[in-house]
Specification:
Growth Hormone, Chain: A; about 0% strand; 2 strands; mainly alpha; two-stranded antiparallel ribbon; about 80% helix; about 500 residues; 18 helices; 3 domains
Length: about 500
């Protein structure tokens, strides 16, 4: 039996102030994933002098550490207290961003990014646990819907805020601003969040280490796939190691008294389908973000700030319609809601593919349709995951949501990036496509043939169109599988 060593009775009188605080904390750590992509051109031209591989890991070090530690950090919050873990996470997040802001070289920058990822891992899952503790049962569906909307809006906020800051100053200003906001969130959370019960559970060190190793190797393979080739020895070895480590993790978790994450939970079809659905939702979301910034700049001639503003139409459904989603789910049911969500997301991606070189209002319409899909999917899937995990393990529930989201985001960037690069090189002028190695980015192509600007940007637009169509097809097909799973009677863990 798990005994509670600190058990203040849950009080719900302050949930109205906790919800906005947790939503802002969530938007901050999710938005930082998107914001850093806008800083890549300035980082490439900076005194850090990063290589292309360095740039890749400056972007992805945060995601890798974030994704592999988010479930363990949820477990730590369940044991040691969610408020304390959240506040520690915000402090670590701010420190990592500050270190990156003053980084004199790539090594310090990468260390700062890794520390920031550790802080984010402590923040996100415990936001869910805190919300579940602070909110009365009859209001939890609404609170989780708002939190899910904040996680969806976070990427847009990162694009918009990052664009504004980078327009006003250099890349160091972006990291400074993030550190300052994190400190503000820490003070806000310290004031509004009440302490929740701590549960006397031994920390599962072997299971945690195996889980972290499996996720790190898996993400490393996904990230290196577009660069090294999906059939390369490095990538295949990474995937094979991930499978072996994953099997070892399952065997260890089945033998310990208090596993970090009990594999038997996934006997629940509800949990498995919801996790896959969450990954798919953010596959489409961050696949779009990967293409969107460059497509608006090259295809529509937008500045960095205009690019950040250009994504705003996607937030309109999330801001306006989220409050109605819980009632809609109760009336229509989970399968119909998810069917509509994935169909809308897929249709929106197809509209963007069609509108790649069309007037911006057509493009904006596609963003609104995608926003409708996320508006329906995120609250529904969040509630499904939360309901499938015991309430005393709310930190683990938050970790599962966060981990599946980050895995889906990494896959979206990797798969869409691979298709985009292949399409781009295929449509380049013959003099450039025959060059060895062939240029993989617009900047590389322009450096080789500055007079072919129009043909190069058109090649990028063609590649982006192909990538968006591929993402739309994947969302539609995998979404159909997820919906089918939710229609069948679930098996309890």
């Amino acid at each position: 039996m798990t005994s509670v060593v600190e058990s203040p009775a849950p009080t719900h009188t302050r949930s109205g102030s906790v919800l906005p605080a947790m939503s802002v904390c969530t938007a901050l750590v999710v938005g930082f994933v998107a914001a850093i992509n806008l800083a890549v051109p300035k980082l490439a031209a900076s005194s850090l002098q990063p290589s292309s591989s360095d740039l890749l890991w400056i972007v992805d070090a945060y995601v890798v550490i974030f994704a592999c530690l988010v479930i363990p950090a949820g477990a730590v919050g369940d044991k040691l207290g969610r408020k304390g873990t959240l506040l520690a996470g915000l402090a670590i997040f701010a420190a990592g961003a500050a270190a990156s802001a003053v980084a004199p070289n790539v090594a310090v920058m990468l260390a700062g990014r890794a520390v920031t990822g550790l802080g984010a891992a402590c923040v996100l899952p415990n936001c869910v646990g805190i919300l579940l503790h602070a909110t009365a049962p009859e209001r939890r569906a609404h609170a989780l819907a708002v939190w899910a909307a904040a996680s969806g809006i976070g990427g847009v906020v990162g694009n918009l805020g990052g664009g504004a800051v980078l327009t006003a100053g250099c890349w160091r200003l972006l990291f400074t601003a993030v550190a300052v906001i994190a400190v503000g969130c820490l003070l806000w959370a310290r004031r509004t969040v009440q302490r929740s019960a701590r549960h006397e559970r031994s920390l599962d060190v072997p299971g945690t280490l195996l889980f972290v190793a499996a996720v790190v190797v898996l993400l490393a393979g996904i990230i290196q796939g577009p660069e090294q080739g999906w059939a390369s020895a490095v990538v295949l070895a990474a995937f094979a190691c991930s499978v072996v480590l994953g099997l070892c993790w399952v065997l260890v978790e089945l033998r310990v008294d208090h596993p970090m994450l009990d594999p038997r939970l996934f006997r629940s079809r509800t949990l498995s389908a919801a996790g896959a659905g969450m990954a798919l939702t953010f596959f489409g979301n961050f696949g779009l973000f990967y293409v969107n910034a460059s497509l608006l700049q090259y295809g529509h001639g937008f500045s960095v700030l205009q690019t950040g503003l250009g994504i705003i139409p996607m937030t309109v459904p999330l801001l306006v319609g989220t409050r109605y989603v819980p009632a809609l789910i109760r009336r229509a049911g989970v399968p119909r809601t998810l069917s509509a969500a994935f169909s809308l997301t897929s249709a929106g991606l197809l509209v963007l593919a069609f509108a790649a070189d069309r007037p911006y209002p057509v493009y904006a319409a596609g963003l609104v349709v995608i926003g409708l899909g996320i508006m329906l999917a995120a609250p529904c899937l969040t509630a499904q995951i939360a309901s499938a995990v015991p309430v005393e393990r709310a930190g683990i529930a938050g970790g599962l949501q966060s981990a599946t989201r980050e895995l889906g985001s990494a896959l979206g960037v990797a798969v869409v990036g691979t298709v985009l690069t292949a399409g781009f090189t295929r449509h380049l002028p013959q003099t450039l496509s025959a060059h060895r190695p062939a240029p993989h980015t617009v900047q590389e192509a322009l450096a080789l043939a500055p007079t072919d600007h129009q043909a190069i940007t058109q090649a990028f637009t063609d590649g982006a169109t192909t990538a968006l169509r591929a993402a739309a097809l994947i969302v539609f097909l995998v979404g159909a599988v997820v919906v089918t799973a939710t229609r069948r009677p679930g098996r309890s863990a």
